[in-house]
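Task: encode each sequence below as structure tokens.

Item 1
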Amino acid sequence: MSEAEQPELEALQAVLAAEHAAVYGYGIVGGRIGEKRRAETRAAYDAHRARRDALVREVRDLGGEPVAASAAYALPFPVPDSAAAVRLAAELEERVAGVYSDLVRASGGARRGEAAGALREAAVRAVRWRGGSVAFPGLAERADTGAAAGTTATATPSSATPTA
């Protein structure tokens, strides 16, 4: 692997870790979400699984060993009901958008275009879940909302200390 590919591989690994966390998180969301939004939850879950699987192949294509999913992840807040599940889904999408923005920055060509498309998809899903948008999706330091400011871009494995 060339030196130029190293930052791109690191960004791909971060996106893969975020997609693992999103798949886990949507399992929680699916168990708590109301009937009206189950189809939307399933579509987001399937989209994140598909992206995760594609990322595994991309990491291997660059000569890396894909980061494994954690057995469990610490949730950013308790999710006892449908309203909290909706908030969790929005948070998952915002975090995924953040790491895709890093991949856009670290890559070029077709991969950059794919990353930008994934960032856009996550931002649109976040808007649907949250009911509103932020000025710079995926860039928490530029967002003018307390919800996006200061959040980390990746989910926190249960064995690590949260950094929200």
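Item 2
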Amino acid sequence: MSQPAAGSMPAMSQEMQDCIEACMACHSVCEETMSACMETGSAPSMQVMRAVMDCSEMTRMCADMMTRRSPMAAEIAEICAKACDMCAQACMAMPDDPMMMRCAEACRRCAQMCRAMTAAAM
């Protein structure tokens, strides 16, 4: 078996590619959700907004770390899945808000992809 050339990165798994895509999609929806709340003046609780902000930051960081093949990517993906779960649960507190429901769905998908990536990395 040949070793990768010095300085080259190992090939990215399909699970990691899917996870990066899900993280970036979730990050985008979280940002849109925060923006929509500010524009419309809707007043989600601070708990909901913190969860959306935390999820936005974690998904961006998780995607960045996987993209650069950080040795901590699997651990960060586990934490990202937890942040996504918390955000989805918080958004479900506003079931009549279509943006919150869209955010919850993106968070659930991202959590699922993070867990799949982590399982494949083990």
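Check on item 2: The mean pLDDT is 89. DSSP finds four helices and no strands in the chain.
End of task.
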